[in-house]
Amino acid sequence: MLPAIHIAGIHVPMYSLMVFLGIVAFFVTYFLYVEKGEKLDRVTSNRLLFVSILGIAFLGFSAMFFNSLFHTIEAGEIRIGGITWLGGVLGGVPFTVFLIHKLVPKAKGRALYYFSLLVPGLVIGHAFGRLGCFFGGCCYGRVTDSIFGVIFPEGSLAAQQYPGENGASLPVLPTQLFESVFEFVLFFVLVIFRKKLKPYNLLIYFFAYGVFRFSMEFLRGDDRGSTGFALSPSQFICILLLIAAVLILLFYRGILFKGLAQKCAVWQEQAAAAVAVPVRSSRRNPIGEIEELHRLMKAGIISEEEFEEKKAELLKRI
Mind listing the pLDDT tens digit for each residue in 131-148? Predict the structure, then answer.
């Protein structure tokens, strides 16, 4: 545990620093994995990035809402504050997928694919966040006599719940580090095998993290609120993630939501046709087609480079 460091006389909370590094890691991953890796045009990239920022903000709100809800259930009175990552995922993922569908024209009909591109950034961002939890002394595990035991200092939450000698805690499992290592490994797997895995990043994350976190809950020793029955809040949400993963898999296989799949196909065809039609009819009305191409560029359906190239072709025909 290291609550804070001092740099040039400035007090820097380690939890906040790790969260900041996690956000930076997300945007670096976005630039390299999504924008450069997918060769997105500037308009589409900017729109997807804007949606990502809105999604992260809503993820934070959802994380606080569900944490407050679970502690309210446990206490029997309203408790507001704190965050839970899985609560953020529960609200943030569907919200961001919806925004991608509505606000990124090229992604219409492929919102799950485009969100999957964001998953590695979320994974590494959370990996840094879990390091912040370790430094801050929260999200610790049960008391243990194994070689993995960590003693948290006097004044820490672990020391208050599991008091040991000299005001420090008894040895507890560093579940924060276990989870951080898991997510760093998952991040590198998704990046190294990018070509094969990228369409299924979200599916993989729901399965892998859902199973891991459900199991990790048996080792946790901190107060995480209550659902009102046997499962912990995180285990309850993990089950929802696994159910969502199964539904997504069946959707990909064409077994469920066939009507939605047909709509997605139509949306994709419309996006492709919006680019193709102006080129085919350009011989009749070049000026009008240039205006139409400009509209498509502003809407993010074609890039600025594509607009300039087609515009030059049409001007030669005047």
Answer: 999 999 999 999 999 999
